[in-house]
């Protein structure tokens, strides 16, 4: 396959302090997005500050040395910009979208938050209550609850398994000074990636980053790693009894981590398995057997570990059947050839999704920062499409056999009664 020369190219510059700046210009767009990623999050939290990364994410919007919380939002609003942030197990990402012409001013506000937040005491106490309500909300939502419980169990004894939000106990007990210390130790230049996408000029973003983020610390980021003999907690099932109409479950299998050379094979396998209305899970579980309204698969991928997860919600009396069918569809990759129409359709779905995502600046700044973090440089769109196109059915089958032939997944469920067990 010949690379499409019309696709945008990502550029990267590393500043003297180690901060990386990545941009992807699309001249025809009116808008642009800019993000600041810190390559430290939940997995790097010490025992006495569980949930600190997410707590700090909230607090960075609550005031800097020259802006109050209200002023931050007013300044974004005056530019017509939309700002947000999220916390995952391995990153905290602050980003904003605006007209391309106002990206410098938008970036200045984000950078002020990132470097100069004061974490005002009164705001810490108010936001502590907000985070506690977020924890309660996730507990009350059965889908979120069972996902978080599954994640904690699947990655038991791995730093990835720590809850992003922390716990009610940890959030209640973290003092402001400990939050400030955590931020100082983790918000370092070498762990920071600035990404911009849309109608932006690379050199302009580099110059802005050099000026606006010069106040970041220059130490080395501490990283918590699992024990050398760690492995996913598989072949276990746990049921959380709750009076509900449905039984909802997650089941999961070990797969190679996010930066693996097999990532393109896994992307296609996941698309065929549970990536939409033409997927095997949708057709077999929903269309043919009427077992569930919602069923899908996803790859939960991190730098040193990953899982292939399947979710479904079904009636209590058919939950075991649904689990057996889902497991059968995974095992099917080990025993049955993938026909040309199926693999070609999956590749086209992935290709179109990635090309259409070029119109979404927010998606692009996340992709640029994610791939830069994983590989040390941004993955070019043309390269990723070429790699997907080159995958063969034989390669997917060989990989599936190595991963799933003897695998017994982990299953966690929530709903009435005693719940389902492991797949038969």
TrEMBL record:
Lineage: Bacteria, Pseudomonadati, Thermodesulfobacteriota, Desulfuromonadia, Geobacterales
Gene3D superfamilies associated with the record: Metalloenzyme, LuxS/M16 peptidase-like
Name of a matching Pfam family: Peptidase_M16_C
Protein species of origin: Pelotalea chapellei
Lineage top rank: taxon: Bacteria
UniProt-listed InterPro entries: Metalloenz_LuxS/M16, MPP/UQCRC_Complex, Pept_M16_N, Peptidase_M16_C
Domain named Peptidase M16 N-terminal: residues: 20-167
Name of the protein in question: Insulinase family protein
Protein family: Belongs to the peptidase M16 family.
Domain Peptidase M16 C-terminal: 174-349
